[in-house]
TrEMBL record, chain A:
EC number per UniProt: 3.6.5.2
Protein's name in the database: small monomeric GTPase
Stored Gene3D superfamilies: P-loop containing nucleotide triphosphate hydrolases (3.40.50.300)
Domain of life, per lineage: Eukaryota
Biological source species: Galeopterus variegatus (Malayan flying lemur)
Reaction catalysed by this enzyme: GTP + H2O = GDP + phosphate + H(+)
InterPro entries associated with the record: P-loop_NTPase, Small_GTP-bd, Small_GTPase, Small_GTPase_Rab
Keyword Nucleotidyltransferase found: no
Compartment(s): Membrane
Assigned protein family: Belongs to the small GTPase superfamily. Rab family.
From TrEMBL, chain B:
Membrane-traversing stretches: none
Organism expressing this protein natively: Galeopterus variegatus (Malayan flying lemur)
Keywords for the protein's UniProt record, in alphabetical order: GTPase activation
Protein name (record): Growth hormone-regulated TBC protein 1
PROSITE patterns (alphabetical): TBC_RABGAP
Top-level taxon of the source organism: Eukaryota
The keyword Oxidoreductase appears for this protein: no
Residue ranges of domain Rab-GAP TBC in the record: 1-180
The keyword 4Fe-4S is annotated on this UniProt entry: no
InterPro entries per the UniProt record, alphabetical: Rab-GAP-TBC_dom, Rab-GAP_TBC_sf, Rab_GAP_TBC_domain
Gene: GRTP1
Function recorded in the entry: May act as a GTPase-activating protein for Rab family protein(s).
Amino acid sequence: MLVGDSGVGKTCLLVRFKDGAFLAGTFISTVGIDFRNKVLDVDGMKVKLQIWDTAGQERFRSVTHAYYRDAHALLLLYDVTNKASFDNIQAWLAEIQEYAQHDVVLMLLGNKVDSAQERVVKREDGEKLAKEYGLPFMETSAKTGLNVDLAFTAIAKELKQRSMKAPSEPRFRLHDYVKREGRGASCCRF
Amino acid sequence: MAVSGAQARMDRNPGYYHQLLQGDRSPSLEDAIRTDLNRTFPDNVRFRTTAQPCLQRPLYNVLLAFGRHNQAVGYCQGMNFIAGYLILVTKNEEESFWLLDALVGRILPDYYGPVMLGLKTDQEVLGELVRRKMPAVAALMDGHGVLWTLLVSRWFICLFVDILPVETVLRIWDCLFNEGSKIIFRVALTLIKQHQALILEATSIPEICDKFKQLTRGSFVTDCHTFMQKIFSEPGSLPMRTISQLRERCRARLLAQG
């Protein structure tokens, strides 16, 4: 399930992941809750992700709360060009703590890193906040595709491991995986 | 304008709309509206920033004036699409404002307020009506634990904008202004009943979602004249008394759940 303030790019991130396209100026505000699915190949096994996209405006939280408890994973987004969306992360985390399962897979994403000029939230700020709450963290861009597939793949790997509980395989570590595979914004300029 | 009472209010309050626009700044309201300007009908040439004149400005004004006028509601996502249609149809900011006021302030029961109680209530009411009129569909929903909000929240919040074809939406709105919010249930029940067999093919939550997306497409909804006749015959009797009782019961249940 994708959560975060209005306009941080939840729908665009999802469409980038699902269709490999960026919705430049052709997308509409998400109202209520929307649903898409995608099948991923994770280490030779098909994992079907059901992804719920939500409206970010505060009043819609009373509608979307009902879905938190069934969510296996949450992607919490802020917009690196919008300080308020970063400041609200703590409120979102409180919300998640109240309504989601206590063992929900949670990842923090700072989106829109392609807008380097307008950036107001530093990468270190995101890292610091993530560390404070023990969350895996990445910066993403739905526009360039930076780290988008990686974020969903990491979630899929974690969920697959949890459902398999295969003791023979080495344990998948979401934090390490994200740290190792995640790319900085600077490496992906063409 | 006449049947909704919008014209009468506009005549009684000359200059009020413009006073609202010149009122004190309201930063959080302004930000919330601005976030959605580029995300309202981006496919419509008249809402593009390159259009002359670009309808984003009137849209912003109408939503800002409304947010200042009805501070309990302010701005709620979904109202952008409704105001956008009103502007396209009336080509007049002030009239659009008073029509939006008629819809949000009087015709629809608290769909857009901060806790959206009216919206949640009406979705439950729809669920109850489906249970009575199409028990097999209700059983499918219950079996998969699907909440109605997942399937129909946009129907209610956007009043079928971007869900059904434009002509059909405008015909529905005519009835909405004339007869009140009950018409939304008539449309929803007709869509579901007409496609009952299709819906019942679904065997999982994603499939149910897909079926509900399918039932708002096709010739059944594009032929708006026949569709409008259907909404008055297909769902059968739907007395206001029943709706009021169900609303009362569902609201009480929601409040008890907290």
